[in-house]
Design goal:
Low-confidence stretches: 1-6, 12-23, 177-184
Mean pLDDT: 78
Number of domains: 2
Structural class: mainly alpha
Largest sheet: none
Number of helices: 8
Strand content: under 5%
Distance between the termini: 15 Å
Helix content: 40-55%
Radius of gyration: 17 Å
């Protein structure tokens, strides 16, 4: 999603502001985390517990638009973040579950009204336009139901991605507990690519 308004850096930078004005998204239970780890390891076809097949496809497209694959690591689709969301909904209270299902319906209604196609069939330019509009309310307390759903989805997407094997080891480059003789800060702050974390310098 190079060049889009939403990138990994902007998602993480604005998450706190967006999440502050929306419903709190819980983390998965230990049982849910174990199920999520199994899904990733098995690489089995999706078998959602709460979402229908079309709803799962919409969530998969939405989370990939939020954290897309790039030159550093795979995106939310390959990290199975849609499965994380489905597991989260399987543990959620009925009101939260219904809010998500209503949000998915509203997303498709808005996409169809604006572009004549459901969300999963939007082209990159249409995706950019729709998600950029939904992001404009991030720093405000007043949100439409669809804007609140999008903020909630971003929060869950970041949680799921950075709980996944891909997010932890390929994006964050976590290698387990290791003794470090010294800690060297990320050198992207000095205008060059970092040889330690792999992050590219801003603007490159």
């Amino acid at each position: 999603m190079t060049g889009r308004a939403l990138t990994r850096r902007t998602v993480l930078r604005t998450l706190g502001a967006g999440a502050a004005a929306t419903a709190f998204m819980p983390w998965l239970s230990d049982e849910g985390l174990a199920a999520f780890a199994h899904i990733q390891a098995a690489k089995a076809p999706p078998r959602p517990r709460v979402l229908s097949v079309p709803q799962y496809a919409t969530v998969e497209a939405l989370v990939e638009a939020i954290i897309p694959a790039d030159e550093r690591s795979p995106g939310a689709r390959e990290a199975r973040v849609a499965d994380y969301v489905d597991l989260l909904l399987s543990e959620a209270e009925d009101a939260v579950k219904q809010e998500w299902l209503d949000g998915l319906t509203a997303l498709d209604v808005d996409a169809t009204r604006r572009f004549g196609a459901p969300f999963v069939r939007l082209d990159p330019g249409q995706l950019d336009a729709l998600l950029a509009d939904l992001s404009r309310s991030e720093r405000t307390a007043q949100k439409s139901p669809l804007e609140a759903f999008f903020a909630m989805t971003k929060q869950a997407t970041v949680q799921g991605y950075y709980t996944s094997e891909i997010g932890i080891h390929k994006e964050l480059r976590y290698k387990g507990n290791q003794l470090l003789a010294e800690f060297t800060g990320c050198q992207t702050q000095d205008g060059k690519d970092c040889p330690y974390c792999g992050q590219k310098a801003e603007g490159r």
